[in-house]
């Protein structure tokens, strides 16, 4: 068994994978190019406030939840600062088309009863739809931290169809079809393309309850880092990997920008694979068809973010996520440049001891990469006045739509900061500023999945481009990567044998 590992990338995937391997006795070194670790867990300070760059909504943290159980296994649950959303209203969805707002309560019964108030004739259809969601999610053993079988699992027809077709199979009202697809911005859904299982996993995750990081998501990154260093490992930031060396079809070491070299028994790529390939001193170590396939896979869309500092005591904190949708028929068209923004989500991030009033608001609007095409060859801080003007115009569009939901919101604003798909590309190191990694296609599910193992015997992958994306998906993929190194079901058996959910 491997005794040491070098992980390229100190985002959620790299840190979670590193924490598990360190706990299991491996000598772990994590190398992060940015000065601040965390990737999507990064937080930055503007106007005296701490803003999170991503991971604004998290699931799996409820009692018995998959990610909570992993945190218990790592021994960090008591150190995780989270705030559960309001069980009576975990999400609110506003449709500008008819000025209607729909409220979603937690749990199977909660969502059925919530939406039945607005669509009473669809109550039985809603019940059938929710049951079908859970059945599809139950087909994914890893989602429930169940040990995987030796045989190849056969999935249902529902699992393989597109999310939009799956919804229409059970829900006959077209408006309700759009309402139950409101989580689309969390997985980059495409009409007739995104697999139903992606929709089911995300939906079930949040139906069971959503949470937020209190005091900044960077605290969680530091907690994972502490696990690594506490077991003798290292988390090194601000020194990007410049080259990856190989010999006899094995990785032999890496060299950073500062000229430092690191070697280990195995290596884990925790960055976008297309950002990793150019680092190889010999790309042929990975088969050309493999590199071409990954390079040709479409990436999910990106996002434009508006970070707002509020005037003190002017805007009350709300303990749920709000979604703005322009039209019911635009639910699968997020990010379209011509009609941007067709939708977005916004939250008031909580402090550890959150009071009545919010200090800030974060607005995230899906955006296609081509929206920033004219500046793709520029660098941070050197994009020119036209770029600044364009960002200001995007911010104004978002604020104007916020006014539709909350009249007078503009008067609560003290300062704003913006980030575009270029920001995501440059700081996260992801191709096309992709928010959710490679797009999944129900018509070719195998092609759009990237195994954590590679043709190089001591090179593994982790992160959102493998299996699932998001906070939950990346954390679960970390388990898969660790088991590729330690053995099938090694970690899952430890998690399941160590904890009795009835006592958590």
Task: Give the topology, please.
Elements: E1 4-8, H1 12-23, E2 27-32, E3 43-46, E4 49-52, E5 58-59, H2 66-74, E6 82-84, E7 91-95, E8 100-104, H3 107-116, H4 123-137, H5 157-160, H6 163-170, H7 174-180, H8 196-207, E9 210-213, H9 218-230, E10 234-237, E11 241-247, E12 250-256, E13 261-262, E14 266-269, H10 273-276, H11 288-296, E15 302-310, E16 321-325, E17 343-347, E18 360-367, H12 385-405, E19 413-419, H13 421-428, E20 459-461, H14 470-486, H15 490-498
Parallel strand pairs: 1-2, 1-14, 2-10, 7-16, 14-20
Antiparallel strand pairs: 3-4, 5-9, 6-9, 7-8, 11-12, 12-13, 15-18, 15-19, 16-17, 17-18
Notable traits:
504 residues, alpha/beta, seven-stranded mixed beta sheet, five-stranded parallel beta sheet, 20% strand
